[in-house]
Amino acid sequence: MSTPPSSPPADARSLAAALARAVSRGAAAWPGLEVAPATFQAHLEARVPGEGDRMAALEAMAIEDLYLACACVHGDRRAIAAFTERFVRVSVAAAVRSRRDGPAADDMVQLVLEKLLAPRGELPPRLAEFSGQGGLRAWVRVTVVRAGIDLERAQARRIVADTGEPAENLEELATTTDPELDYLKRHYREAFREAFAAALAELDPRSRNTLRQHLVERLSIDQIGALQGVHRATAARWIARSREELLTGTREQLRGRLHLSEGEYASIMRLIDSMLEVSVQRLLSG
Known about the structure:
Elements: H1 10-29, H2 37-45, H3 54-60, H4 63-73, H5 77-98, H6 105-117, H7 136-163, H8 170-173, H9 179-187, H10 189-202, H11 205-216, H12 221-228, H13 232-257, H14 262-284
């Protein structure tokens, strides 16, 4: 006569019931997000300490924040938008107010999102490390502080590069196989640098960050799309449009600085296109 399967211990049943209640609680807090109950339960259970009073640990966790983080990690666009507005922008705004000469808020927001949501090879985004022990806003604030420091260091490096010897700059190293372009680069270097920097400054923050992600950080279209919460086709359009806006802006800036013949003007356009990538790297690296 076979022995009937034994029931799980009472503690295990209680924990399972508590996990189910926590899943319902998270879903109720964020009704517009698409997270399968089993997905969040697995996400949650993996973050409950394996030793000690697991029930007490579960009850102390920031379930609503953890649910939002789980949705972001799994690519829910509405979750990423809510996370950006309610947690990242709020924390960045506070940091910017406390640092008068610090980096721009939009640049900090983008860098924080990259740090927390960008794919890391086989590893999940860093936001997956949020364990629910304490609130999400305090956890994000640590990354905001680090992002501000990173941007300030990058800004300092750019200042040093711009005031150093010309040969230390990327544009100087980017020789071409076209003697005409090399001639133009030598003779119009300063005008080009000024025009390019002015055109880059006129781009909106999203365009600047899209170019930085694509040309400096070498993120793929899929990675940029995931980071920005858009389809890869949209990310590709953003890259193309940002590049075109920068080329057009540089051209218009040069038109106002130089008096060129039609032939020289056409050659300058080739120079701008050939120097785009290294110039973006110089101004937006870090």
